[in-house]
Write a structure and sequence with these properties.
globular, 8-stranded antiparallel sheet, 273 residues, 40% strand, 21% helix, alpha+beta
Amino acid sequence: MPELNTNGNIQFKKEGDKYFISIDKRDTSPMYLTVGLSYIYNDTYSVDKVSKALKELNAYKAVKVVCFEDSYAYHAEMYLVNAEHFKYTFYKLMDQLSTLKKELADYCSSSSGVVRSSSGTSESLLPIYGIDFNTTESAVKAMNYTEKKKEDDGSCRYVINSCWVYTKDGKVRKIIIGSYHQLPPNFQQLGFDRSRSYNQWVEFLKSIGFQIVQQYDAPTIEKGKGTYKNYFKADFRAKNPDSDYTVYFNFSGFDVPNADTPMTRPFMSIEPI
């Protein structure tokens, strides 16, 4: 049963480990939240071994290993605009903390000091606000949506926290996140909220396990489009080999003279295979 500890943090147990949830009193809008657990150094997990593992273990995850003078900790940190969103990311963060614990155990028990990754760099974008392609339309209707609209093809569009969720024949068929839509918390954790060039976006997607499976328009720059110059456009479809969905990415932006110039994040449409 969760309880408050002497530091005012929420404390709970899972599989014998004692976790905490801490909310920074200085950052409240949006709130800054940490989920984690800590241990004292010992012969297996010495300060030297744990410190040497940081560079590899902290390279890509939404969770980190942190070293202190007498102890080390696993931290998952995030900003939340709405506390309600935490329930959509909590279990994913707990899974990542468990994976990170296993990888540090592999590192510290290995004579070569190499992490045998159980997850690679593959990351899932689903669920989004608790929705994936196993979610029924009736379950979507029970959620807190702000708009429902019937589309010409017989599907229904529900707006849930600015994402567009399309249903048809009782099932979720597509989830759209526009370039200027509010990103789901798990997308923010992965780094989708950062400004990148087209080439950097391609490398970023590879780093989290996605491969381009179909290129539609190769990067193109139109020198004049209305009052603007250097209109950049490109689009492709990508897939994580372990997933049962694909993601369509559409890039467009003005005053982008080449594929190495930072631009707004892409329009994304996630669809089941």
